[in-house]
Design brief:
four-stranded mixed β-sheet; alpha/beta; 26 helices; RNA-binding
Length: 841
RNA sequence: GGGCGUUUAGCUCAGUUGGUUAGAGCAUCUGCCUUACAAGCAGAGGGUCUGCGGUUCGAGUCCGUAAACGCCCACCA
């Protein structure tokens, strides 16, 4: 028998391990149609946050729904090695231990990193278990494991052979802290306070000078030109002339280039080809000299004269001082401008000229754009609007810098010997070849996740059966990093979309709508929530609180009320189990009106829930289920059933409906439904792998359903009247007609209140449809009643006095919104009326 | 500069292909310890669906427009 109160800790204890050891999550156990989701692999850098809980719960609901429907459901677990993020954390740990990570041998460092991975992976496994995720651990993968490495090398080699991967010297985004190249997607632009430093660049052989405004004066050592717009009448005349670079005393040319915008700054712009993306292009156009002035670690190099060795920001400060002292500084103009920061280390990225590996994007992106035109083969986004985000990215994309100067990742399968380059699956046999020391961008391997986890490049049984996968679930912030890349890689290498549907959810925010972040300290650990309210409550809350694609404001109160809902289900189940213990076999013959009513409602519920589940509209599933369970099943049907407990049909209906409810809830709240289901008499299967409720047309009784609806509505009207008259015991009911009042009279406890003749007492007509009665008020006022009434009169009088005063206040009547005044008048009127009534009685 | 989203009860949010009286949770008010549940039951109050215009027999829903807030992309000497 169930405990009196729902105790999530007890219910959830040990369940996951038992599910897992009984193989309930394993794929390949039935002959159903394949349904497959690959988990977005969490980074092995830390613990899961609420966003993960949300993301994985949605997937678990989909998987459990399909599994219970008889699909061969496969949910592939796995984790991401998360290159920069993990390396940064491992390095930090080493530094805290007093070890300089870069002085270590690469192999030794990797050992430390793998230990880290092991520890954190274990953590994540524990959290997945707490959340109740029905992952098939037989298929678990890691982005750095053997099979996935093979997939990565295969893709690299093929793209190289196809001319879609190349190595070249380009301007890239450089992270001076992690000392690695970044892709454009890894650069986060932030508004920061800065300044326009106006610097005097004297013209050669003249007293004139150009006013150059720059936000980065420290790069001036690398200036190799000044550009003005050829159409800018102010400066046209200087094109071809030269200026002297202050302090450096180097002569640099003034060039005419469209890049110079007459409306920006002063209209003349210094050109630093090695430290600015646009300047690099200008440099190429005008064949300018390239001078690097900043080291990979963000300090100034030997070209920066006396500033060598100084950090770029310290150098800026000192340089500005020197410029001022020497009279070159015209003015400093404070501005707010947006500056690129590294996504992982948060330091300002440095545009940097370096030799890196790139993926040529346009041929790959064009394939996606082409494929999205075909309704049958495209990736279908839910909500559909997110398709535009992907398509736009495909249109404007540029070559993807994939090499990273890190140790943690897939080492690039390229070997060098003198001037030769070899790209292949294995090192060349011949001696003297040295492998590229760089690794690939983490997203390069993540991009292959939907097929590499299924065994590709080998055409395995799993790959044949489950690819393309059914749905991918992720947040909209991950579309550029991951969804887009999986899509073009999937199309290119498998000829198919990697997933049929892409379900996009929003971000978790705090109650005030702010992003949850470490710096704000407003993060919520899902494990704490589970401890307090249970995984079922958290899961149900997260999955049903918003429509797809929109952000979710985390509100603990709502988790609490979800807990209440589960407690309600628990107690209803408890009642049912207490009453059907002796049921020998289920029989849905000889049904009562109430039985027919709830069964009809159940069929409608199954229909709607299935419809919404199929569309993954979980918030709508909740609306339907919550109402059915709480209002129809608990508040109405169970109350009615209490009068028919010796009925086998009623017991059977209670059981039949409860089972359907539990199965519909199971994908959302696996723990509690499993616990209750196990205890239902005559049940001997596992709810996880049982079967989903199906509509049974023989259990739809429209006439009875309508009739009971009318009875319920009548009871509501009657109770209403009773409450209004504050009647408790002293009343009589006269039935005006001969219709069936049996259930009504039981539910309203009319026993002893029914009169067969009309009375002289105060009478009120109460009716709904065919149900018509007269309610006689026989209530005589007691001392207690009088006191109560007097108290009410007093508070009413006080309120009236206050309101009259307010309305007498001319300022209020004049200045306050007319509607408010009107409202106050209305209130006053009704209060006076009520007072009259009370005093008259 | 280009694009997208949001705006519905005091708060947080649902609202399907346009269709009776726009819903829920929490909060508020009234009355109940009725043996499944007081973390509950029976009721009540609370909305010009951001403003304006249009299409329609009918608009929270479709179209146009304005505003506020938020996001994405691009640019930012």
């Amino acid at each position: 028998m169930l405990e009196k109160k729902y105790n999530h800790l007890e219910v959830e204890q040990g369940k996951y391990e038992s599910w897992k050891s009984n193989g309930l999550f394993d794929s390949g156990k039935n002959n159903g149609k394949p349904f497959c989701i690959v988990i977005p692999p969490p980074n092995v850098t830390g613990k899961l946050h609420l966003g993960h809980a949300w993301d994985t719960t949605i997937q678990d609901i989909m998987i459990r729904y399909k599994r219970i429907q008889g699909f061969d459901a496969l949910w592939v677990p796995g984790m991401d090695h998360a290159g920069i993020a993990t390396q940064a954390k491992v390095d930090k740990k080493l530094r805290e231990e007093g070890i300089d990570p870069r002085s270590m041998d690469r192999a030794d460092w990797l050992k430390v990193a793998w230990d880290w991975k092991k520890e954190y992976a274990e953590n994540i496994h524990k959290q997945w278990a707490k959340l109740g995720l029905s992952l098939d651990y037989n298929k678990e993968r890691f982005t750095l494991d053997e099979g996935l490495s093979k997939a990565v090398r295969t893709v690299f080699v093929r793209l190289y052979e196809e001319g879609l991967i190349y190595r070249g010297e380009r301007m890239i985004n450089w992270d001076p802290l992690a000392k690695t190249a970044l892709s454009n997607e890894e650069v986060i632009y932030k508004d920061v306070e800065g300044a326009f430093y106006h610097i005097k660049y004297p013209l050669v052989g003249s007293d004139e000078y150009l006013d150059i405004a720059t936000t980065r004066p420290e790069t001036m050592f690398g200036d190799t030109a000044v550009a003005v717009n050829p159409s800018d009448e102010r400066y046209q005349k200087y094109i071809g002339k030269k200026v002297i670079l202050p302090l450096v005393n180097r002569e640099i040319p003034i060039v005419g280039d469209e890049h110079a915008d007459p409306d920006k700054g002063t209209g003349c712009v210094k050109i630093t080809p090695c430290h600015d993306m646009n300047d690099y292009e200008v440099g190429l156009r005008h064949n300018l000299e390239k001078i690097v002035v900043i080291n990979p670690d963000g300090t100034m190099n030997e070209n920066a004269l006396g500033y060598q060795g100084l950090d770029r920001f310290d150098a800026r400060e000192k340089l500005v001082q020197e410029l001022e002292e020497k009279g070159y500084l015209l003015k400093i103009e404070k501005i707010i401008h947006s500056v690129g920061h590294s996504e992982r280390t948060d330091v300002m990225v440095e545009p940097y000229l370096s030799k890196q590996w790139f993926v040529k994007m346009h041929p790959l992106a064009d394939k996606v754009l082409e494929n999205q035109k075909n309704k049958n083969t495209k990736v279908k986004f839910l909500p559909a609007r997110y398709e535009k985000i992907m398509n736009h990215w495909m249109e404007i994309t540029y070559d993807w810098c994939i090499s990273r100067q890190l140790w943690w990742g897939h080492q690039i399968p390229a070997w060098y010997k003198d001037d030769q380059v070899y790209v292949g699956m294995k090192a060349p046999e011949e001696e003297g070849w040295v492998q590229d020391g760089d690794v690939l961008d983490t997203w390069f391997s993540s991009a292959l996740w939907p097929f590499s986890t299924l065994g590709w490049p080998d055409i395995t049984e799993d790959f044949k059966k489950f690819y393309p996968t059914s749905v991918l679930v992720t947040g909209y912030d991950i579309i550029p990093f991951w969804v887009n890349r999986m899509t073009f890689q999937g199309l290119h290498f498998t000829g198919q979309r990697p997933f049929e549907y892409c379900y996009i959810h929003g971000l978790i925010r705090d109650k005030e709508g702010r992003k949850m972040s470490k710096s704000l300290g407003n993060g919520v650990d899902p494990m704490d929530v589970i401890e307090e309210y249970g995984a079922d409550a958290l899961r149900y809350y997260l999955s049903t609180s918003t429509a797809p694609g929109t952000d979710l404001r985390y509100d603990e109160e709502k988790v609490k009320s979800t807990w209440n809902f589960i407690n309600k289900i628990w107690n209803a189940s408890r009642f049912v189990l207490m009453n059907i213990e002796d049921l020998e076999s289920e029989s849905l013959e000889d049904l009562t009106m109430a039985d027919k009513w709830i069964l009809t409602r159940l069929e409608m519920t199954i229909k709607n829930v299935t419809k919404y589940m199929d569309k993954y509209e979980f918030q709508n599933v909740n609306a339907v289920l919550y109402k059915f369970i709480w209002e129809d099943y608990c508040d109405q049907y169970i109350e009615m059933a209490k009068f028919a407990m010796d009925n086998v049909s009623t017991k059977s209906t209670l059981r039949y409906t409860l089972i359907a409810i539990l199965k519909m809830l199971h994908p959302f709240m696996p723990f509690v439904t499993d616990e209750i289901y196990k205890q239902i008499p005559l049940v001997c299967d596992d709810i996880t792998t049982s079967d989903y409720p199906m509509i049974d047309k023989s259990l739809i009784f429209s006439d009875e359903e309508r009739q009971v609806n009318d009875q319920i509505e009548f009871m509501r009207v009657f109770r209403n009247k009773k409450a209004e008259l504050q009647l408790t015991k002293e009343y009589k009911v006269y039935l005006k007609n001969n219709v069936d009042y049996d259930m009504i009279s039981k539910m309203l406890k009319w026993d002893g209140h029914i009169t067969l003749e009309k009375l002289e007492a105060k009478a009120y007509e109460v009716s709904y449809r065919e149900y018509e009665v007269i309610l006689y008020d026989e209530h005589e006022e007691t001392e207690e009643d009088k006191e109560k009434r007097q108290k009410e009169i007093n508070t009413l009088k006080q309120s009236i006095e206050k309101r009259e005063k307010l309305l007498a206040n001319e300022a209020f009547v004049k200045k306050a919104p007319a509607s408010l005044v009107e409202q106050e008048k209305e209130k006053l009127k009704s209060e006076k009326k009520k007072l009259e009534q009370l005093e008259g009685e």
